[in-house]
Amino acid sequence: MSRIEVLEERCKGCLLCAQACPKGVIAQSERINQHGYKVVEAAAEKKEECIGCAFCALVCPDVAIHVYRTPKNVKEEETGHAG
Amino acid sequence: MYQEELVFGHPASMTDHYMHYCPGCHHGVAHRILAELLDEMGLADQAIAVSSIGCSVFLYDYYKVDCVEAPHGRAPAAATGVKRARPDNFVFTYQGDGDLASIGMAEIMHCANRGERVSTVFVNNTVYGMTGGQMAPTTMLGQKTTTCPGGRCQEREGSPIRMTELLSQLGGVAYAARVAVNNVKNVKKAKEAMRKAFQAQLEDRGFGFVEILAACPTNWKMTPIEANERIASELIPYFPLGVFKDVSQEEAC
Amino acid sequence: MPDSSPARIFIKGNEAIALGALNAGLKCYFGYPITPQNEIPEYLSKELVDRGGQFVQAESELAAASMLLGATAAGVRAMTSSSSPGISLKQEAISYMAGSELPAVIVNMARGGPGLGDIGPSQGDYFQAVKGGGHGDYKLLVLAPGTCQEAYDLTIKAFDLAFKYRNPVMILGDAILGQMKESVSPWEPAQPDPDEGASWRLTGAKGRKHRILRSLLLEEGVLAAHNRHLQQKYKEMAQEILIELFEVDDADLVVVGYGSIGRIAKSAVRKLRKEGLKVGLARPVTLFPFPAQALRDLAVQGKRFLTIEQNLGQMVEDVRLSIRGVADSDQFSVYPGDLPSPEEFEDPIRNSLGG
Questions:
Q1: In the list B100, B193, B213, C166, which could disulfide-bond B95, CB 3.0-4.6 Å?
Q2: Is residue C259 exposed (0-12), middle (13-18) or buried (19+ Cβ within 10 Å)?
Q3: Closest CB from C71, C92, C203 relative to B71
Q4: Which residues in chain A touch residue B22, judged by CB atoms under 8 angstroms apart?
Q5: CB–CB of B3 and A71 under 8 A?
Q6: What angle do CA B68, B74, B77 make, to 5 degrees?
Q7: How far from the centroid of its chain's Cα atoms is residue B31's Cα?
């Protein structure tokens, strides 16, 4: 599976990532960071759908999103264990 | 246990300094692309940046590269001085539209015309951001700013200046392109254009220039998403994207 | 030092400055044409390039000064030259270079003003040179040669001082000095240390932390601390003071004049001495730091002063500040636009001596 990590202290809640996400995984959270911005998150009910395309990170103006992918062969071997 | 890998992280040549830009400002995207290229092209430890005046004045906070701050508009002149003194270093300027196309018009034209082996990233967001949203040389006709509150009027203030078209007429320019970073496709193209502008310097072909159409949601009084849409609907029709000049090795002077 | 080389050449003051810069290790020159200093860029456009340096005729004085900022940030010996109206344009980058502590050398072969003025000699830029010139509180080291030999010598010194203090240095001459031809002994100075500026210059961040050279200091307290540091540096420059004293020991009146005017005043003093008048000359060679103590020492001895300048009274203010509470200075102006001669200084000197 793939996932994103939102660096909440860098996020300014502009939502350009949410618009770019082809799977609609990203949404505004209810959390407000130390700068006063309502940060984004991978919504709990959608995060499994992340395909690791990194479109969100590519359009993020604040280098606030890291993207992780699990290589395919590893993924297949570990499917049973992966959360 | 599965082994995941980081496929998109923080560029090594970028500091982890929190960026001072407003939400949705495209300076951050332009900064990151530039940093990725410094890393990919192995330039970070030989680069000397020349920062300008405007919203990007704090450029030096965001890169782990040597940097000198130039007076308003003079970055291409300062870069000329740096490059002439240190021809083996990679020298770039990063300038906004007020800096480059208004107060620094003479410096950019002559730096380009001399074919200085430097690269310029020009961020055009059609407004003076740092000083609070005044009219820029690239402000669109009809666009309201704090110094053209009724909207820019051609009879009074002239038309927005197309810098890439102007510069591509000059002999010393090896590469000139206009790009945008308003969607994933354009971000990828922007990065490739910037790479080519840098290569023009590295291959001693001449001056390299990339204009980036950028959003300024705060001074456009729009949400970041609306500002992105304005780039596609209003800016790109007037400021067409594309490569305006690409001089190959054989043609270089 | 001038004796180390027996060869003497007959050159203009402008050429002496250009040759001095070359022999001091000049690597980059940036300029824009303006009379009466054009021999400097014309000379360097060939000679500097022949020695492997970089010569750029800039699009404007604004650009030339910012090119100088870039080259000095890279830590090489670099110079620009101009004349009064052009120097006004260069003030933008000069202020930035002072704020960023860059070792630039700037030559002003001054001409008459205000505005476009004329192309004749003038000392109307004294205030601009010694009080900063651009915006903000800063000082340049200002050297005022009076002869072509001194123009050569002081240009070499200018580069050493610029790097010693990490501060812009101005050579303040005028149309007389620039256009006059004299015999000059072009002695060879030691080559600059290749490591000069190694602790701050920009070379790319290979193997070290990246460096930033800037004058924008917004963080709380940082600008104030920087200004304290600069002021301390300006105080330390006092050790560089140079002044020529001529026949002052028994003088009742000391004529104070710098540059070409100081030299012309010397002729007048010499002539009046032959007539038995007890007059002497003090010719500041560094205008900043100003030789205040040397003048004050003369004032304490009971001497009177007459400041002669080719302006409407500028250096006289520094002379008066130097001797305040002890003595005062009379003032005689040669107006920019007029050509001065020793004869016209004689009556003012007699008047001050008699007074």
A1: B100
A2: buried
A3: C92
A4: 12
A5: yes
A6: 80
A7: 9
Q: In the structure, what pLDDT confidence band is assigned to residue B126 with cuts at 50, 70 and 90? A: very high
Mean pLDDT value of segment C82-107: 98
| Cα-based distances in Å from A22 to B32, B121, B184, B186, B229 | 22, 30, 11, 16, 17
What is the domain partition of chain C in residue ranges?
A: 2-194+227-239, 242-354
Measure CB to CB from residue C93 to each of B47, B74, B85 and give the nearest one.
B74
User: Dihedral angle at the C-alpha atoms of B121, B122, B124, B130, nearest 10 degrees?
Assistant: 90
B216 part of contact set with chain A, CB < 8 Å: no
How far is C313 from C328, CA to CA, in rounded Å?
A: 14
Chains that touch C (3 or more CB pairs under 8 A): B
Q: Report how far residue C177's alpha carbon sits from residue C57's, in angstroms, rounded to the nearest whole number.
A: 23
Q: How far away is chain B from the Cα of C68, in angstroms, using its nearest Cα?
A: 6
Q: What residues contact C337, with CB distance under 8 A and at least 6 apart?
A: C112, C117, C118, C120, C122
Q: Is residue B55 part of a domain?
A: yes
Burial status of residue B203 (CB atoms within 10 A of its CB: 0-12, 13-18, 19 or more): middle
Q: What is the ipTM of this complex?
A: 0.97
Q: Whole-prediction pTM value?
A: 0.96
Query: What is the domain count for chain B?
Result: 1
The answer to whether the CB atoms of B3 and A82 lie below 8 A apart is no
Q: Say yes or no: B79 contacts chain C, CB-CB below 8 A.
A: yes
Asked whether C71 and B86 are in contact (CB, 8 A), the reply is no
Closest partner residue to C203 (CB to CB) among B79, B80, B86 is B86
Name the CATH code of domain C242-354 (choices 3.40.50.2300, 3.40.50.920, 3.10.20.600, 3.40.50.300).
3.40.50.920
**Which tokens is B110 given?**
């002559």
- Whether residues B109 and C59 touch (CB distance < 8 A) is answered with yes
Domain holding A17, by residue range, is 2-78
Strand C253-256 to strand C304-309: parallel, antiparallel, or no bridges (unpaired)? Answer: parallel
Q: What is the DSSP letter of C134?
A: S
3-state secondary structure of C11: strand
Picking from C56, C204, C213, the nearest residue to B89 by CB comes out as C204
**Residue pair B151/B142 in contact by the 8 Å Cβ criterion:** yes
Confidence tier at A83 by pLDDT (50, 70, 90): very low
Q: What are residue C288's DSSP bridge partners?
A: C142
Nearest alpha carbon to residue A52 among A22, A82, A79, A73: A22
Residue type, B198: F
Q: Which whole number is the average pLDDT over C334-340?
A: 92
Assess contact for B207 and B120: CB atoms under 8 A. yes
Yes or no, beta carbons of B187 and A59 under 8 Å apart:
yes
Count of the separate structural domains present in chain A: 1
Contact residues, chain A to chain B, C-beta under 8 Å? 2-3, 9-10, 12-16, 19-20, 35, 37, 52, 54-55, 57-63, 65-71, 74-75, 78, 81-82
Tens digit of each residue's pLDDT (9 = 90 or more) over C234-291: 999 999 999 999 999 999 999 999 999 999 999 999 999 999 999 999 999 999 999 9
Return the ∠ at Cα B186 (arms to B174 and B132), rounded to 5°.
Answer: 90
Rg (CA), chain C: 20
Q: C2-194+227-239 architecture in CATH?
A: 3-Layer(aba) Sandwich (3.40)
CA–CA separation, B111 vs B118, rounded Å? 9
